[in-house]
Specification:
- This protein has one domain.
- It contains 3 helices and 2 strands, in the order H-H-H-E-E.
- It is rod-shaped and about 90 Å long.
- With 135 residues, it is mainly alpha-helical.
- 49% of the residues lie in helices and 7% in strands.
């Protein structure tokens, strides 16, 4: 009879069992969080490549159609080549694009040199080690 009383009193978990469970959970979280952050960065890099490709293509189309390069990215929107200036996913703003302007000598319209290329305005480095501003 005494053993039945003893079993009835023991309910719940011991402190050591709770510590072990918490340790396992913290190890799993410490592995999962960096992987999640890396996957987010890969997604941003992929989006940046896509946005740069789109901007460069639209700049070329505008330059070919108008026989002059756009002066600002907003020109691409106002002329209907883009719905809106895309956001730089690394900086989180559409205002931080770094514009590469044409040389007046090599420009299509030498009186109005415009945008030749566009780059990210971020000073960070990619997962491969190259700066985003060089993409």
């Amino acid at each position: 009879m005494q053993s039945g009383k003893f079993v009835a009193l023991r309910r719940g978990y011991t402190l050591i069992e709770l510590i072990i469970v918490m340790a396992i959970i913290s190890i799993l979280v410490s592995i999962a969080v960096p992987l999640y952050q890396k996957s987010l960065l890969r997604t941003k890099e992929s989006l940046l490549k896509n946005n740069l490709f789109t901007l460069r293509t639209v700049i070329d189309e505008y330059t070919f159609d108008k026989q002059k390069a756009p002066q600002t990215l907003q020109d691409l929107v106002s002329e209907g080549y883009l719905r809106a200036v895309p956001v730089d996913p690394i900086t989180g703003s559409e205002q931080t694009w770094r514009l590469i302007m044409e040389d007046a000598v090599s420009s299509v319209n030498q009186t109005e040199p415009g945008i030749f290329d566009v780059r990210s305005g971020s000073d960070q480095k990619s997962l491969e080690g190259t700066p985003y501003s060089e993409w």
